[in-house]
Amino acid sequence: MALRLFYQGTRYRIRNTSAVLRWIRKVIQTEGQRADEISFIICTDAVLLPMNQQYLRHNTLTDIITFPFHAKGDPLAGEIYISIDRVRENAKAFEVRQQDELHRVMVHGILHLAGYRDKTRGQKAQMRKKEDAYLSLRKGST
After folding, report:
1. What's the whole-model pTM score?
2. DSSP for 123-140?
């Protein structure tokens, strides 16, 4: 299972990288999934907004865009772009630690790769419940 972490346009760096990636592996396994190659790209609004406009036709800022590269039933593969600018702002708005919000968004991307959606109220509630459960498994990655 290859999990990779890249940074684009930001000086921000994830602390305890190896522990965070071990935790993400545990999330994937707990979901009953296997993974091929997943890349997390931590970037800025300036990087993510044009992607949101081009690929999703949304002219808004977003905290995450997930690009799956696998067929249903195959090991998970894809790229997960995360705006650290949105993560910082959301952490302030929700009164949580920035690191906790970043971890929530990382899990959110994994859940999207695993097939979960968040278009309806019920889907959003299901994803939030799973995010909360997986955040509680983070021993050693915070």
Report:
1. 0.95
2. HHHHHHHHHHHHHTT-TT
